[in-house]
Amino acid sequence: MADIMTPVLGESVTEATVARWTKKAGDAVRKDEILVELETDKVSLEVAAPADGVLAEIAAAEGATVEPGTVLGRVTEGAAGSAGAGSAPTASPAPTAAPSSTPTPVPAGELQPEATPGKPVPTSTAVPDTSAPKSEPVLAPSAQRVAAENNLNPAAISGTGKGGRVTKGDALAALEARANAPAPAAAPSAPREIHAREERVRMTRLRQTIARRLKEAQNSAAMLTTFNEVDMSAVMALRNQYKDSFEKRHGVKLGFMSLFTKAVVHALKQVPDVNAEIDGQDIIYKNHYDIGVAVGTEKGLVVPVVRDADALGLAEIEKEIGALAKKARDGQLSLEDLQGGTFTITNGGIYGSLMSTPILNAPQSGILGMHKIQERPMVVNGQIVVRPMMYLALSYDHRIVDGKGAVTFLVHVKDAIEDPQRLLLDV
Amino acid sequence: MAETTTYDVVIIGGGPGGYNAAIRAGQLGLKVACVEKRTTLGGTCLNVGCIPSKAMLHASELFDAANTEFATLGIEVQPKLNLPQMMKQKADSVGQLTKGIEFLFKKNKVDWVKGAGKIAGPNRVEVTAEDGSVRVLESKDIVIATGSEPAGLPGVTVDNNRIVDSTGALSLPEVPKSLIVIGAGIIGLELGSVWRRLGAKVTVVEYLDRISPGMDAEMAKTFQRSLTKQGMEFKLGAKVTGAKASKTGVSLTVEPVAGGAAETIEADYVLLAIGRWPYTEGLGLENVGITADKRGFIETNHWRTSAPGVWAIGDVTHGPMLAHKAEDEAVAAIETIAGKAGHVNYGLIPSVVYTVPEVAWVGRNEEELKAAGVPYKVGKFPFTANSRAKINHEAEGFVKILADPKTDEILGAHLLGPQVSEMVGEYCVAMEFKAASEDVARTCHPHPTRSEALRQAAMGVEGWTMQA
């Protein structure tokens, strides 16, 4: 008997939903044939049969939530299948399909904040019917009675007894939690009536994830935003002066994103708190500068990461952003492209935004909002002059970044953009 | 020049704490020595405590039954007491059991070092043998398991002739016509029962206004009624201020605690059984900077004393002075020394009084729960409604289960009745697994047995006792 295991889903992905089984229990299967599709917050993956034989058991039904290592089902090796493999929903065997552990990128639609790495999601006692079985839970006789009478899924009750055994108190608590479960559980059972000229569309899992993560970021961080403005004259002049030779030399246009990325790295080095994250009672400082760049796509916002931006030249950054943006639009981003950013830049200016307060990309502690460049009258040396101005916003987690640090950070970014020679001299 | 041997662990004391520690250390592959002053292993428990007292309780119970109950069952006999033989069978059992520990020591490669152990300094134990020779044991860790001794009372000098302690009361040369027991705790009531069954008139004098401190008050009240019915007399709230022993008896001066006139009561023998003190005499605690508290107990934190590498378990530390508590601590301390996760659940150390009826309990009693403000539900079942107890004509007593009203987790189990000492373990296991009363109620119990009362009482917590 070979177990069909949930593969490792990626460092920041802790669970997946069983989207579809392509076979029924009793069907014959061939090694490496795709048996089940999993959907995660980021990508969907296919899991293949570990051996030739018969699909003996489906342990995690469609809709079940599974974690890496969860047994999805079992294949009896070498056995002959029932009735005929042709009865499977998608009978066409796919012997050359990807190995079971390779995540397949999902077509674009992605989320903004990433999952918090290294923080396992505690099994909820509240939602008994969606969790997949872990190992066989051991229930006290009384807990068995409570579960049976109330239709609780034993696997979804977290046990506090010896060796994780489920006590009567645990079962009663799960029952109570179910009774008190807030909207998410209750809402679907009593959907609002749809009126004429209304349409009900189910949120995709990705949209739900975006919604949940954004709200989580707001709930956990002490988030606030500080503003400044930057005179873009210098970088615009720089770009005008060198755009042709830059493009000729590097084969890529000199844009503002690379300059801002450099300015941000420069500022992060001055104010390390902004590049850190809170983990429990500790602060983790990151001595690497992996800058997430928000990219809008048809299905939502994605934030691919430019790695080690401090070690890249402007041209390399432009190339990297260009490549990531293309991948995002083509739905070709892999999990690795999306993980591990230490700070995020989002540019609402391309849609015309003049000012905004971005939401943190948890567990990061800072996000820079760029905006539309607009010519405005400015007073310089007592004279009113016209200058191309951009508002800058830094949303930050006040638990870790002090106001002074946040303001200083933004001033560093402003100074570097207004006088890009500072980046060259590192001052 | 003293001979020096090096060990991983040296245990001072060969009682239930010490010998179990030594065995566990041997099992875990530690080089271990156990230092014992007595000529036999087993400590107070085996030599002059739990074991010989149970031997006398068993024999005297049968004698009493032959006298008072056999006729009901249709057996007519005229029992005749052979006290020397009763003492001999007791000594035989004790001898076999202490030899058993010697065997276990050999089996687990424990060195038994005979003599009085003294901590001479960090990692050094000096053992003075009976002949005065001294051996030095070097050890990474030292475990103090020296136990306790009977507590004294000003004005009452134990001569172990007419005024005896628990040790003396196990070997009286004759059945006293009258015996006064000072202290209505477990030891006093057990030994008082022994001699009452064998024919003594027993009076128990207790300072408190109740017997068996620590026992659930309802159980204690029922228990006292039983003992009184058997002929035991109680003077509660009474303070003993003096005792004068003569060749043939003792006259005891007793005053009411609440105030009032003192009286003198006479008896052939007096048993002083008001408790026990930690035994640390000559142990050399000062050589490693350990100071015992006012009452002589050694402070520990997870069996570690204030001195590095020195541990203490059992009666010399705080907590109930019970062999099984010492045994649990022994295992936990040695496992901790060996780098494992030693653990003792102090909330679940059972207590037993081995009288007739027996009283056994584990967990918290009603008074403790009330004092802690913990709500609870009660389930009760009397042995009069239990078939096995009934057919054996032993239908005294009841079972009381206390459980959390919300989670139904069992908080305490209190048993009074025939042989309940053998039944309380079921609740120890259940409670260790955080069982609900319903778990016991839904567990099949054999019929007909007394253990059914445990289940029926558990049912009672949620109001569905079926057989009463």
Describe the structure.
The complex is a heterodimer of chains A (427) and B (468). By secondary structure, chain A is of the alpha+beta class. In chain A, 28% of the residues lie in helices and 22% in strands. Chain A is built from ten helices and 19 strands. Chain A starts with a strand and ends with a helix. The model of chain A is unreliable at 83-134 and 183-188 (pLDDT under 50). In chain B, 30% of the residues lie in helices and 25% in strands. In chain B, a hairpin with a 4-residue loop joins β12 and β13 (250-256). In chain B, α1 (16-27) runs parallel beside α8 (323-337), α3 runs antiparallel to α4 and α3 packs parallel to α6. The chains are: A alpha+beta (427), B alpha/beta (468). Chain A binds chain B through residues 140-143, 145, 160-162, 165, 167-169, 172-173, and chain B through 404, 406-409, 432-436, 438-439, 441-443. Chain A: It comes from Phenylobacterium deserti. Chain A: Pathway: Amino-acid degradation; L-lysine degradation via saccharopine pathway; glutaryl-CoA from L-lysine: step 6/6. Chain A: This is Dihydrolipoyllysine-residue succinyltransferase component of 2-oxoglutarate dehydrogenase complex. Chain A: Residues 1-76 form the Lipoyl-binding domain.
